[in-house]
Amino acid sequence: MELKDKTILVTGSTDGVGRLVAERLCAAGARVLVHGRDQGRAKAVVAGIEAKGGKAELLIADLSSLAEVRRLADTVRERTDRLDVLINNAGVGTGGAGAKRQVSADGYELRFAVNYLAGFLLTSELLPLLKASAPARIVNVASAGQQAIDFGDVMLTRAYSGVRAYCQSKLGQILFTIDLAEQLKGTGVTVNALHPASYMDTTMVRQAGVTPWSSVETGADAILNLATSPALEDRSGLYFDGQRESRADAQAYDEKARRQLRALSLELTGHPSMTSREQHS
Question: What would the pLDDT profile of 130-177 be if each residue is shown by its tens digit?
Fold first, then answer.
């Protein structure tokens, strides 16, 4: 993809692999909407990009609040009349050993809320803009750490573990990717998910008490491959391990599970695209 004058939103792009992806996209000529929740850190990233001649704009939002996700989408629509690529990269890690169950501003299990539900809502809100900008791409930064969603206890009120919460939320992203790809057929918008690299040298990994053994450069290469590679121009609904097409957990390919997750997500976010049939399914 020719990146000059393309507009790209990268969530969670003030640290780690997201920051490197934003910097590299700007270096290639793209206009990047840099998202973070810490104003000071976000300003420093944008200033660093601009000092090198890149085009970056600052967007502040806490994705643990659905109201903030909606406000972020509103700001994107105010700032730009096109969106060529959306990279849903922001996330919360496992929390390490002994992680306590936390809830979002809306009362949902925190990792499900930030890692999955925020991306679901933001993507849903920005779909009209992406369709109007077609050909356009959506990249969901998931993980090889995946665990089937227990629809009887999605919020993990019983037997909570940070690892389970993280793995369930990341698989949710992949179910959403495959489901959305079906809905987007013929629109010129593609959506793919990936595990960028294992235990990259990031704050998230270090906070989990894990010694990093992959570089953020490796992860950035994988994300940029899905965002820009001409070979993926018309390919959608895929899961990649790094730059290699792969297979996710079996639940990702279960149409009933995907339908359940979609109905639940529409209900939890109160998104206006929810139909009465989905409300009562």
Answer: 999 999 999 999 999 999 999 999 999 998 999 999 999 999 999 999
**For residue 97, how many C-alpha atoms fall within 13 Å in the half-sphere facing its CB?**
2
- Rounded to two decimals, what is the model's pTM? 0.93
Q: Are 219 and 197 in contact (CB under 8 A)?
A: yes
Domains of the chain by start residue, with CATH: 7-279 (3.40.50.720)
> Given a cut of 50, is residue 96 above it in pLDDT?
yes
How large is the angle between the packed helices 162-183 and 255-269, nearest 10 degrees? 100
Catalytic residue among 166, 199, 239, 253: 166
Q: Is 166 a catalytic residue?
A: yes
- Token pair in block for residue 9: 């939103």
Q: Of 244, 134, 257, 228, which is closest to residue 184 (Cα–Cα)? A: 134
